[in-house]
Amino acid sequence: MPKNPLGKATWRAAWYLLGYLLTGGFGFAAALTAVTGAIGLAITLAGIPLLVAAASVIHGCAAFERFRLRVMFPERVLARYRQPSRPGIIAHATTRWKDPATWREFAYLVGMYPPLLIMDCVVFTVWLTLLAGVTAPAWYRAPVEHYSNGLAVHGIQLGYFPNGPSGRGGHGLYLDTLPKALLTAAICLILVALFSYVLVATARAHATVARALLRPPEDPLARAKEVLERSGPLASHLSHNDI
To answer: Shortest CA distance to 92 belongs to which of 45, 36, 49, 58?
Structure first.
């Protein structure tokens, strides 16, 4: 959690979430369209190059998401793909679509898009609304509301006022004076500072999901290989006998 709720960590988190709201839909549409089109023609020879192209589209969109991860995590996330064992377009298509890395990237770009979009949109919208409330004293008189009775009022409606700020049936707060705007700004400043922790936690959760799916899967035998490669008493004994 950030030590300063309005510090660099908060603004990095806001930039990361905003970036996904602006570009996540493109990655989702590009990956889904490429795969759908390739599958539709997969029964013909024309579909084989499209399968290779679709995998390249997925890899490209995933590479952009890896680049964006640098906003949240300093360490670089690298990709590792299987290489075809023989030349030819069929071998390339088979290797790419048998590679778990391709499916993990597709899962992030397409499968995780709806829940991540909803989570990011809700949290970022609430934080941005509170941040706008902090600046209310600077622009509260800019909006003008016209009512059916001919009344025109400068101010910000925070509620329902069918007959103006002083009319009957109104509910909420109408920021039509500077004291009201200053009070609202003070309350929003406290709330935006508290909600910044939620914003940062959301960005880190999103980035953690992205890193888990976009980095190469860990080798389950890596620890065993490390032990075997490490020199031990037996290796020293064998080396001594060889001498």
So the answer is: 49
Task: Supply the mean pLDDT for the chain.
Answer: 83
Where on the phi/psi map is residue 87: left (φ > 0), alpha (ψ -120 to 50), or beta?
Answer: beta
**Is there a contact between 52 and 89 (Cβ–Cβ < 8 Å)?**
yes
Distance, CA of 131 to chain centre: 20
Tell me the C-alpha distance between 89 and 132, whole Å. 54
Letter for the amino acid at 154?
H
Using DSSP bridges, classify how beta strands 152-154 and 156-160 pair: parallel, antiparallel or unpaired: unpaired
Q: 72 Cβ partners below 8 Å, 6+ apart?
A: 12, 13, 16, 203, 204, 207
Residue 188 · residue 134 · CB < 8 Å: yes
Length of the chain: 243
Q: Flag whether the pTM goes above 0.70.
A: yes
What are the extents of the domains in the chain?
A: 8-113+203-218
Q: Which two tokens stand for residue 184?
A: 């609202």
* Whole-number Å distance between alpha carbons of 56 and 179: 58
Reported as a single tens digit per residue, the pLDDT across 65-112 is 999 999 999 888 888 888 888 888 888 888 888 889 999 999 999 999
